[in-house]
Amino acid sequence: MKKWTLSMLLLVVIIFGSVIGFNLFKQKMMGEYFANMPVPSFPVTTTEVIAQDWTPRIAAIGFIEPIQGIAVSNETAGVVRAIHFESGQQVAKGDILLELDAEVEKANLRSAQANLPAMQANLKRIRQLFSRGAIAQNQVDDSQAKYQELVGQVDSLKATIARRTIRAPFAGVMGIRNVFLGQYLNAGTDIARLEDIRKFRIRFTVPQTRIADIAVGQSLNIFVDAYPTTPFIGEITAIEPEVNPDSGVVQVQASIPNQDGKLRSGMFAKLDVQLPTQTEQILVPQQAINFTLYGQTVFVVEEQAPTEDKEKADASQDAKPVLVAQQRVIEVAEREDDYARVVKGLKPGDVIVTSGQVRLSNGSHVKPVEDDALDTPASAPQL
User: What is the span of the domain harbouring residue 121?
Assistant: First the structure.
């Protein structure tokens, strides 16, 4: 019995010893395998940082407005007796556009003008009689008042007739006519649009933090959807003296010449206020920048000498330096289109990762590759 128990204990020790020995051998072999396994290199695209000229701009949007533009309307009601313009016609300042019926007013004017000489002659006789002492002063005053009343009536009738003749207040182009001959018009009827299209203006807003960058006389480029590749050159003419306390923006007005007649009022426009060019600036593609909780970073590719173990393992080969990605915190001042201006963290000559950085960590080995996946296509793909 004792011999059987001793045999069983010996068998258990042998089994457990074998298991433990196998595990120790396995761990040793796995350690040697991972120690000798080459460090993976991740494929990335890179670009070299170079100092370039940077022309900052202030981007804004607005609607084009005419310098002079009105809806021509009538002050008094009446029937249209004559129309002197056609839709789209160029008119000069003072040209007659439309006449309303004024026969009654003209008849009253003729009647008043007919009585005016007799009233004037009567006033002259009254003054002569007063100078001789034949009449009292109140008679002279009464005659003077009647004469002045008649003169005022004549002037009022002339003004009423003039108001029934609608003239162009400035030179411009007439819009589409909305009235017809013989039509009765109520006061304030919209007859047609009149605009001076030789020059336009645009109003837009800029943040109060950029007020120091704008000034009256500064040029800007304006783009409209009708001519997306043609910039229209404008000039800042006025800056609102008050900053909106609710939004923190200030309103700016600019003028836009329109000699070729391409622009129209009401167009939606994008504009760029051009600022002075800054030289020797660090510009990097925006896709190279990573956003983290502690700031904005990029991966800088640096050469690193191989380790001693690696040199022993590759004794038969010439040891080559490896490329390692080092994460670096940067400070971005401005962004425009596909590029950002970096003011801290990079210097000319640094090589940065532009794509593939999602798989990287600080110290990862990288392998630069050629890839055009990030190139901007000439046209948007059709869905």
Answer: 102-163
